[in-house]
Sequence to fold (935 residues):
Amino acid sequence: MSQLTPNNTPDTPALSCRNISKSYGKVKALHDITFDVQQGEIFGVIGPDGAGKSTLFRILATLLLPDAGEATVEGFDVVKDYKKIRKIVGYMPGRFSLYQDLTVEENLRIFATLFNTTIEENYHLVKDIYSQIEPFKTRRAGALSGGMKQKLALSCALIHKPSILFLDEPTTGIDPVSRKELWEMLRNLKSQGITIIVSTPYMDEASLCDRIALIQNGSFLRIDTPDNIVKSFGKGLISVKGENMGELLKRLREIPGVISCFAFGDSHHVTAENSSNQLNSLTADTLAENLKKQGYTNLEVKNIEPGIEDCFMELTAK
Amino acid sequence: MKVIEVENLTKRFGSFTAVDNISFSVEKGEIFGFLGANGAGKTTAMRMLCGLLVPTSGKGVVAGYDIQHQSEKVKASIGYMSQKFALYEDLKVWENIRLYAGIYGVPEKETKERTDMLLAELGFEKEKESLVKSLPLGWRQKLAFSVSIFHNPEIVFLDEPTGGVDPVTRRQFWEMIYKASERGITVFVTTHYMDEAEYCNRVSIMVDGRIDALDSPSALRREFAAASMDEVFRHLARKSKNNGL
Amino acid sequence: MREFRIFVQKEFFHIFRDRWTTLILLVLPVLMIILFGFGITTEIRNTKFAVYDPSRDAATQEIVNKLESSDYFTLDSYLSSPGDIEQLFKEGRVGFVIVFGEKFYQSMLHTGDAKIQLIADGTDPNTASILTNYATALINTYQQELFASQLIAEGGKRGITAETRLLYNPTLKSAYNIVPGIMGMILMLICAIMTSVSIAREKELGTMEVLLVSPMKPFLIILSKLVPYFTISIVNYITILLLSVFVLKVPIAGSLVLLTALSLLFIFVSLSFGILISSLVEKQIVALLISGMLLMMPAVFLSGLMFPVESMPQVLQWFSHILPVKWFIIAVRNVMIKGLGFSSIIKEVAILTGMGIIILMASIKKFKYRLE
Fold:
């Protein structure tokens, strides 16, 4: 693997992206994307559909040409040295990357063969994942459930021992249990030293990455570790639970000092100014008082730490 | 008043039982969450309820019509929207509305008036003449939902309507669901977002073709001593024998 | 190469695991030969005809008998007046009417201007001309018989219509024309249409992009797709020849080696065409439509299966010049049916080779090794 890289120092980023832009006609899919991914990192690109994740992945996997900017993968330029890059990366577009009418084992063999290796040679790499679907190895890939398909796709991407893995939305459309399993497998791969770049629309998966980039409308909103992004939230976040949550939501939005209020499962998240110098600053206690005066009972109001979703919503708020 | 009544509904494909003897009912105006892992039988069950698939055995009544013998009437009385298909991308916004209104028999004059109202409500007045494919995904889903209830059906079936949509729009979408529910429309929704399960009045979880849990989210959390619906779901889905299919 | 072999195997799996594809590729050719060979004939039998005969003499009687006793005509009625003719055609009761002049026998023997009028339903010009030709042929036979019995002296003026030869079906046997046409169609179906759809499928399903992001050279990927279709077309080539020789009784008049070489050339051209089309489209259905419309339909017309090539409108005949299948069918007819040698097909071989090279180069140039 590393014999192919021109700069062989451990400090060289596995991936380097500078000012990458891409448009489809009038639509600007990617705008000035700049970031690095370090060796052995799990880097997450987090954002909703249409944000530009797939376009970015395709450019990095050398399938599309950027309109502007440069990018290198393991030191190789994505435009000029695309043939070299194609030898060392694993690429999975997530939804349709398997041959539905071939069996599990046949699919794996095809992908091993594609990279001039055999299943036997690298079996140890994929054992953890593949062993879960091995009992079904003679079943056609089309007959597997979503979670199983993704496990097979991951095995196929790994079987040739790539130095860097591009996984485009591997967990989309999969149920929460299978999603969690897949992420556990990804984290286990870190010990193999494989750099993983993964995209997902699920905000809760962000915390499972080493560093993330939040993407919306073709631009990166923030690039950092999940912890740092949370720390830079900049506002107060209060969780409110009570009876009549529908009513409560409307009421909360009318309270002065409330910047925004959104439903978050069984509680509402209220963002408010948290500086005590501000005129309209709001704390959990003052908010609770306010609500009690309005007749709300059975309240649970407390300050909470923001999650990535809160941060994303705050960053995309108009 | 019950909008859905299901008794011992079963569907077999050859030797494989996709839906295994499920029974439940849904009240008018309820927001009913229909959860389950992929391959648990959700899609098959929904198709039967929409009159698209004939059950192997058992009975179902949706909006007062039998799903097996009066499937056409069922289809005319419901709304449907899914993540994969909602609107025709190469038609304009108002053309899509007119198309679906026409399919469900909404009179033309009424369609014209309510189209303008609907667009105003969504804040889409400027997009009336735009092709749907030029709209951002989140807008499309919101519009698709409005179109699916344009003809005021008794019940609307939503199949993972918020998949891949950004967090803010997702919540706006659910606020639209609340409004519909207040209007008396029953909402039957499937989703993979566990926080959305909390927004439902009641939730059912399918495992291997059976319904293994059915109650309000808070009751389920108590029952399984879980901090969130996510935990409840994982607890139940892990028991699935059919890990391959 | 081991990798290549495994990929070829994968392509065979894709083909044979899909029931419909297997059916089309292996069963369809057999069906077509049998169906077209036996079932459809461009011969016309038992057409009802009527006679208006003011003479009612030995000559007219003889001619009517000849018509009646042939397989082609069946006597329906004698008309009492010429005015009835139009009505008969309108009602569709007859497809043909023969009208004799007055004093036919005498005119024929003495003045030499015995008149016969042959009337056929012109709304189907092909059928009309065939019927007229049959009738004329029968009338001429009668004339020959008269010469032979020296009732009329040769050299005298004859008053019956000029002889017309049947150009495209000289032996009145349709199977001879079917085989080259079907061979062209089948080889093109497999090599151009199925190949282009197969490659387009990988693009549509998204597996192509995964194949591209790998060290495997794109041309090997394409080549692995061609091998199964090449093999199947050889199998079908052999099947078609066997069926035509032993079942339809259409022998291979010329050199089998030459015929095979010619077919291999055409296969090469068709495969290139398939690759070219697939590099221009993103979806299977588009590949199918383009190759179907552009290649298959003209092949059907050119094969002479429906109607003679010469009766096609000028524009289409002109358009057919740029289609490889047209030249292939001509060459096969020359070698297989007429038994001619290489010198008779030099022109066609040159054209096919030229087309093949141009198409192959174009498809190599057009092949996308990125998504755009």
Remarks:
- The two ends of chain B are 36 Å apart (CA to CA).
- The longest helix of chain B spans residues 167-182.
- The interface with chain A takes residues 36-40, 136-138, 160, 163-169, 171, 174-175, 178, 192, 194-199, 217-218, 221, 228-230, 233-234, 237-238, 242-245 of chain B (CB under 8 Å).
- Residues 2-84+155-237 of chain B form a domain with the Rossmann fold fold (CATH 3.40.50.300).
